[in-house]
Amino acid sequence: MASSGPKRRASPGAISPPPVKRKIESAVTKKSVSSFFTPTSQKKPEPITWRVVNSLVVGRYSTGADRGLSAEKSKVAAFDLDSTLVSTASGNTFPRNSADWKWWHDSVPSRLRELTTDGYHVIIISNQKKISIQKEMKAGRSDSKSLTNFKERATAIMKHLDIPLSVYAATEDDKYRKPRTGMWSEFIDEYDLDVAGVDFPNSIFVGDAAGRPNDHSMVDRGFAVNAGLPFKTPEEFFLNAAPEPLVESFDPSLYLQDSTDVPCFSRESALELVIFCGSPGAGKSTFYWDYLEPLGYERVNQDILKTRQKCIQVAKDHLTARRSVVVDNTNADPETRNHWIKVSKDLNIPIRCVYFSASSSLCRHNNAVRAANKFMNPESRVSLPGIAFGDFARRFKEPSMSEGFSDIVRVDFRFRGDDHAKEVWQKYWI
């Protein structure tokens, strides 16, 4: 019979192995089949678990050899993560994705395993403000992309180490963020170390933010001080390098109460106008309530009255009624202060200036303490953004008698408060 079309050419050779030799790829393994039919109660728990506590992300890697409760105090080796245990493989400051990491030094993994063998709890305590949780939760998403990337990166690190390990990541500027000790408290509670306690002299915290000339901050060193842990940089701990010199840094202990240093302020005239000059957080309002309000001075504050014109009008009303006035504003520059000098000239009364010399670091510290501790914040002030301090520093000109003041009183900040307030204030907060 004639063919209806051209003949099919013979194959030049085998296109694929005979069926009997072909290997069939399958995701089904004996292990997965066994796991599927194993009752849930008998299954081995996953080695890595994650949970979110408010703004804190906690990951835990269990190996089956985790330490249980002990009657003896526990040694703890705590580490920052980025630029301490790992760095980016790309060389970027921040990782491009979850795979963009490498060990900070080749010795890191073996050193951490040695610590576990020596009986240490090994933990990671890291600020991770680039992780977004709240926005994603409001949008109805369980995990943000940034959180997923962090989990994947941390998971890879924990699996590579294969030691009992917990990771704590602070995602907001709150009690968990270093140098504050919220993450440390969460660790102590999770491992019940409040019972047997921590062997502080033989424990350690290692971090790169140490206040050295090229460091971005000293939050790691401050955290160690707050937690009561000895501190080392990665270079000191992993490479046995000598300690580096520190830049001049803010130390809260230098500002604690000194009974020999009492601020001096007394009324010089029956009727006078007093203006404050100082950064937000310099202690201006506290100074008013402690020293000028008892002397009968009325307070004018732009945060309350909203505009300078309203402040000027209220001040004039008080002065016309023969009541002395304190202007509790920053009054950073001569142009701003001149508005008040004009008021004093118009009413023919003397004007004095109280100059608060507190540094920007000290003011930021006061701002953080005040916002985080309600009992030290009677006026319920909210935390000010960094731009508020930067703007004051940009505009600031130290007050001078040549501007027209009859007196300038300089106030150098000293913290005053009871023992509880002192204990809170003298910790590092920023």
UniProtKB/TrEMBL annotation:
Disordered: annotated span: 1-25
NCBIfam families: DNA-3'-Pase, HAD-SF-IIIA
Protein keywords: Kinase, Transferase
GO MF annotation list: ATP-dependent polydeoxyribonucleotide 5'-hydroxyl-kinase activity; double-stranded DNA binding; polynucleotide 3'-phosphatase activity
Keyword Membrane (UniProt): no
Organism: Aspergillus avenaceus
Keyword Kinase part of the UniProt annotation: yes
Identification of the protein by name: Polynucleotide kinase 3'-phosphatase
Gene Ontology BP term (one): DNA repair
Biased composition (Basic residues): 1-10
